[in-house]
């Protein structure tokens, strides 16, 4: 982050621009009630309709594409992604000139099942060359590098590869300068659910991870992409968030039914800072590094750190907790104050 800069300074002008919206925003007044947690959060709300996405909806917005059968009987799952330039509001009154996948930051959370054939039709309607570089297993010519799917404005490329290994992955643009293309918003989660038929020895766990199964429906799943924004292009971040909007989940706590377990697909794409982290208040979680195992790689921890592109799955529950609002945030305190903090609103199933 920028030493000496503060979100308060940025928000001085932001407040002036959005004074009317700010005064009439009931959620802002509700959020003020969290003063005990440290009331130093942004005032008001962003225009989600103008952005075209709402971080609350993004938590469960899985893009599963279109499914068909290949001649050999395998499943083909197809996605369509378009790169486009778009201004997005990442804190009230603070506009960021983003480069996006499908008009949103982060891009769609692509979700497939282990072993499927994936086809991603990528069109570049942006003003710069872009690509989709997937973290997964594929051939060199599908890697999203120059000569392998990095395309100019107006061009189209089709990536095709198998969905392996299962896990919590990501994709991002690999055009140069890389730090600018990633930071501008060109990234998204890429989840490959395990195919239970391939994991008979851990069938119940595999089934619980597979979207659409009854076992999976017993979980509360959310995807969280930790990101940040360099508002003045000095290669340091001024605003931090999960799913792009600073302090969003403070103003709009994430509702959690106490009796159902929680699974978080956590991805770090933060540019310019070496690491980011996730800390859960008043609770502990199991962690699956990269999501590529069905047994936890870390057990009973309350904080995990990730470098850029590192990701994993968190599992926890509040079944023995009393209902209430439980905080989560980066345990780099400065990231927290600059936007990366939120609340789980834990309620009883009947509530
Ligand atoms: Cu790019």
Helix and strand topology:
Blueprint: H1 7-17, H2 19-24, H3 26-32, H4 48-51, H5 55-58, E1 62-63, E2 66-69, E3 75-91, E4 94-101, E5 109-113, E6 117-124, E7 133-134, E8 156-162, E9 167-172, H6 178-183, E10 187-193, H7 203-209, H8 214-217, E11 220-229, E12 239-242, H9 248-251, E13 254-257, E14 262-268, E15 275-280, E16 285-289, E17 298-301, E18 303-307, E19 311-316, E20 324-329, H10 333-337, E21 341-347
Parallel strand pairs: 1-5, 3-6, 5-10, 11-14, 13-21
Antiparallel strand pairs: 2-3, 3-4, 6-8, 7-9, 9-10, 11-12, 14-19, 15-18, 15-20, 16-17, 16-19, 20-21
The chain binds copper (II) ion.
Describe this structure in words.
With 351 residues, the protein is of the alpha+beta class. Helices cover 17% and strands 37% of the residues. The protein has 10 helices and 21 strands. It has helices at residues 7-17, 19-24, 26-32, 48-51, 55-58, 178-183, 203-209, 214-217, 248-251, 333-337; strands spanning 62-63, 66-69, 75-91, 94-101, 109-113, 117-124, 133-134, 156-162, 167-172, 187-193, 220-229, 239-242, 254-257, 262-268, 275-280, 285-289, 298-301, 303-307, 311-316, 324-329, 341-347. The strands form 4 sheets. A 6-stranded mixed sheet has the order 12-11-14-19-16-17, with no helix packed on it. The chain has a 5-stranded mixed sheet with strand order 1-5-10-9-7, with no helix packed on it. The longest helix has 11 residues, at 7-17. Mean pLDDT is 91; it is low at 2-6 and 8-37. The structure holds copper (II) ion. Copper (II) ion (CU) binds at residues 99, 128, 130, 173, 175, 181, 186.
């Amino acid at each position: 982050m920028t030493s000496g800069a503060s979100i308060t300074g940025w928000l001085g002008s932001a407040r002036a621009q959005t004074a009317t919206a700010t005064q009439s925003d009931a959620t802002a007044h509700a959020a003020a009630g969290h003063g005990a947690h440290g009331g130093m959060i942004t005032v008001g709300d962003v225009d989600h309709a103008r952005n075209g996405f709402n971080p609350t909806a993004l938590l469960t917005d899985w893009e599963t594409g279109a499914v068909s059968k290949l001649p050999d009987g395998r499943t083909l799952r197809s996605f369509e992604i378009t790169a486009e330039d778009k201004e997005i509001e990442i804190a009230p009154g603070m506009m960021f000139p983003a480069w996006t996948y499908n008009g949103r930051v982060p891009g769609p959370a692509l979700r497939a099942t282990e072993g499927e054939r994936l086809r991603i039709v990528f069109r570049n309607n942006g003003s710069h060359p872009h690509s989709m570089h997937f973290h997964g297993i594929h051939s060199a010519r599908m890697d999203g590098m120059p000569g392998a799917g990095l395309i100019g404005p107006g061009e189209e490329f089709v990536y095709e590869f198998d969905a392996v290994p299962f896990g919590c992955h990501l994709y991002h643009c690999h055009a140069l300068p890389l730090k600018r293309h990633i930071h501008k918003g060109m990234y998204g989660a890429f989840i490959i659910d395990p195919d239970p038929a391939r994991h008979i020895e851990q069938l119940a766990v595999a089934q619980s991870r597979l979207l659409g199964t009854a076992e999976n429906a017993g979980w509360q799943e959310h995807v969280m992409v930790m990101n940040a924004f360099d508002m003045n292009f000095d290669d340091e971040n001024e605003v931090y968030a999960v799913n792009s909007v600073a302090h969003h989940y403070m103003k709009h706590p994430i509702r959690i039914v106490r009796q159902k377990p929680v699974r978080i697909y956590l991805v770090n794409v933060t540019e310019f800072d070496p690491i980011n982290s996730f800390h859960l208040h008043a609770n502990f979680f199991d962690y699956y590094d990269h999501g590529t195992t069905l047994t936890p790689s870390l057990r009973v921890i309350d904080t995990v750190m990730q470098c850029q592109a590192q990701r994993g799955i968190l599992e926890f529950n509040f079944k023995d907790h009393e209902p209430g609002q439980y905080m989560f945030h980066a345990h780099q305190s400065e990231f927290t104050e600059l936007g990366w903090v939120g609340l789980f609103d834990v309620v009883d199933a009947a509530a």
